[in-house]
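As described in the Methods, two query proteins were run sequentially through the folding procedure within a single session, without resetting any intermediate state between them. The first query and its resulting structure tokens are shown here.
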Amino acid sequence: MAMMYTPFEPNVSFRYILTAPSFNGIKFLCKAISLPSIDQGEVVIDYINTDFKVKGKSRWQDITLSIYDAVGIPGPGAPGGPIDIHDWLLNHHNSSNGEDGWAFTGYKEDWDIEILGPAGLPVYKWELKGAFMSAINFGSMDWAAEDAVIAEVTIKYDWARYS
């Protein structure tokens, strides 16, 4: 008996490109990124001896970005990885003079995560609106290891759109 199914091409987790205005070459250095997720809060309405729930606030959850630390790639427009992250950090907060940046004219940006098909062309994308850095770990060094240095960045954003 023949099996009936609908053929499909699954998305695979290694085909994507991240585009962010502050990161020149991030699309080449981004090792991993989590996709957007949202939590729906609840409002509990008490009624006599029972209750019911309705939707409360919608809250987009943080995403995590892992970036390779690139060495020796000079020049404008070259992928810089953690160098670009540090420059973006200065838009958030400059530790040398104590100044904080302005949200809408400084550190908040719109990012795109493009999901690619087998031919390497975008099949859909996530647009992150108002993205900014909330935490960064520039990685660690270890004489006994043979690993690439990976920077971990936590990104908050106002909302996301799937298109």
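Immediately afterward, the second query was submitted; its sequence and tokens are:
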Amino acid sequence: MKVAIASLGRSLTDFVCGSFRNAPYFAIVEVENGEIKSVEYIVNNFTRGPMACLAIARVLKAKGVKYAIAGNFGRGCSQILRQHGIIPLVSFDTIKDAAIKAEKGELPEFVFFRGRHGRRWM
């Protein structure tokens, strides 16, 4: 199973980035039976512009990614990922721990909540 993890660095001991779209790197991790088989790091060149998440989703889909992991996604990014068949998951662990937990099904799926006062009436 392949997992894309928004990463703050280029090591398995680095932490998951809090923002999917603004992550400096994506770690494409292949996990089987609780073991990491391979890791590929991609530099995120798509941090600017309104279609950044669409470009990221296309690259990840081409790599065969099933899950995307970050601290937060935002409503637009999570919808675009789902449209491309990629499920957004939430984690603040290290890259290694997040990948293993994703394979075991221990990470929660990202759900966008609009706040109680999300819309104000004037």
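Residues 2 and 30 are 4 Å apart (CA to CA). We note this only descriptively and draw no conclusion about the first query from it.
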